[in-house]
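seq:
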Amino acid sequence: MAKIYDYFSQYIDGDDLAIVGSGEITRFAVYREERRLILGVFLDKTVDYSVIERIQKSLVKNLQLENAELNIKYPSSLFSTETVSVVLSKIGALNPVVNGFFDNADAEIEDNILTVCLKNGGKELLEAQEVNKDIIRAVYDMFGVDLDDVSFLEVETFDMESAVRKAAEAKAAEKAKEEAEKEKYVPHVQLGDLPLYADTRKQIMGRPIKDLPKPIKEIRPDDGFVTVWGDIFNFDVRDTKRGDSRILTFCVTDQSSSVSVKIFEKKGIIDPIIKNLEAAGTILISGLYKLDTYINEYIIMPNHIESIKKIEKQDTAEEKRVELHMHSSMSEMDGMTPVSKLVVQILSASVDDSVLRLVHNRSPIFIKSHRHRIVCLDKQNNMMALEIP
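struct:
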């Protein structure tokens, strides 16, 4: 029996020829007017359809054909759940409806029925386009196996990478919660009269900062080297054109004013700084206050940076009170929620007392709740009845 390499070795790429070269030619048809070639080939090992497509293109190009078609047949004994992918790769290449639905699909065969387990959805579309019939025909043509039916089953795929990432995030969140709980009972030292804990300072860049920070609003153009503190915002990192360095720009605010900061360094130096700044939130910074002629704005070029924890404002009042401001369906075009639902939300608060200020046609209405007793007053202090569902 003639082999592929006997006739087509010089027309097929060497790597592909090594895969199909020993295949027996079972049919050889040439249509001269149509410049079309059809080859029937019997192989004893399955080949992904992408290889067949490459061979067909090589024959078209090298033999100057309009079309070349390889019809591959395998021994029926090769058909199994492991080789179903060969059939699916052919269907996917020839039928655009498939559109990746067969990617990473698994297969099950029971009672001469093939079930294709889809991990990318598509069951309804594949059934509507009767792709199951295409698979039955392809299995018969390629393996000589006559299936009774083909069905599709959508299954959820287990994303190991996503699961590991979520587990790591959950563990980090739990650790952060534990550290935050411990932090409540750690005695801290205040930095001067600033809302900062001096004992929480950690070095990010340069050397320890000795000077106390001044308010950002008090910085003057001729100050030269300054020390300030603030919360980070507008964080931006860009690579230089040469690609070996990065430009880091961000702003800090101490609520009195804000100032821009710029760092230009090699990647190996600046990358750890970027990582620590992203985690810091609040920092002490000391550096040269100068005019950046590129953006025409005064900035700080830092020499030293430390992270520091800010003193959060505490509610020490014995009698707690929560104040809310919102618009309801009584407002002209500002809100959609009924007042009664807003009050129900207030009653679900954990504090004993809460006050809600509603806007009704530009006139304030005050609703005070104490546990489950509700008093509603308009701006003239007239009591109002309110129906609660």
